[in-house]
């Protein structure tokens, strides 16, 4: 008896085997690597797709949202061009921060996220945007349609976290974050990252 078309016999790679979502760039699939309750930074191994321990967080602040990436995106030249001249992309999938009213304590999960905006972050002279979204089915935030729908303090927490999460004693931070942008620009960033992915990985 053949397997149904919708049945995956093997687990797909979360970056390459999944897709950005049929309603992208407005509602996207987000693969979650880190929750707000864990002082360890995890990162998807690019070769195997397994979630690997990257490093324990040095600072005391925790990621204030769910954190992961949008499948089949790639921060290349199109994505970097939206940040400004002279930059290059970080060659990683596009990062996404997802807020949910109810605590989600598990990582290594997939969810649907409604895009609201983003933070323009530069790390070691590479464009490293952080898309900001909410759980699409969230009872409190699910109807939000732009970054202005979220309390300012949530964006402040994200800004503080990313400005400090790589800090080490005696070393100057390599991270610079500009003013947060809204949904319209965030969708341009996602579209650019999807196009960068197609150029980089299309057969």
Set down the secondary structure blueprint:
Layout: E1 27-34, E2 40-44, E3 51-56, E4 66-69, H1 77-81, E5 88-89, E6 95-99, E7 109-119, E8 121-123, E9 126-127, E10 130-135, H2 152-164, E11 175-177, H3 183-201
Question: What would you call the shape?
Answer: globular
Query: Given the helix and strand composition, which structural class is it?
Result: alpha+beta
Number of domains: 1
Average pLDDT reading: 92
Strand order of the largest sheet: 1-4-6-10-7
* SSE sequence, one letter per element: EEEEHEEEEEEHEH
**Which spans of ≥5 residues are poorly predicted at pLDDT below 50?**
none
Quick take:
The protein contains three helices and eleven strands. The chain has 203 residues and is α+β, with helices and mostly antiparallel strands.
């Amino acid at each position: 008896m053949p397997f149904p078309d919708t049945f995956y016999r093997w687990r797909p790679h979360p970056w390459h085997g999944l897709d950005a979502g049929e309603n992208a760039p407005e509602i996207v699939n987000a693969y979650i690597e880190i929750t707000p309750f864990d002082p360890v930074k995890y990162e998807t191994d690019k070769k195997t797709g397994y979630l690997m321990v990257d490093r324990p967080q040095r600072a005391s602040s925790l990621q204030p949202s769910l954190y992961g990436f949008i499948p089949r995106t790639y921060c290349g030249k199109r994505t970097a061009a939206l940040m400004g001249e002279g930059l290059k992309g970080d060659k990683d999938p596009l990062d996404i921060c997802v807020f949910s009213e109810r605590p989600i304590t598990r990582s290594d999960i997939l969810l649907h996220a409604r895009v609201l905006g983003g933070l323009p972050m530069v790390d070691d002279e590479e464009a490293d945007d952080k898309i900001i979204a909410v759980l699409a089915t969230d009872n409190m935030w699910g109807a939000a349609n732009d970054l202005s729908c979220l309390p300012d303090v949530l964006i402040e927490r994200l800004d503080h976290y990313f400005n400090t999460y790589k800090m080490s004693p005696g070393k100057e931070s390599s991270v610079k974050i500009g003013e947060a942008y809204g949904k319209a620009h965030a969708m341009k960033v996602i579209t650019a990252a999807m196009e960068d992915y197609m150029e980089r990985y299309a057969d």
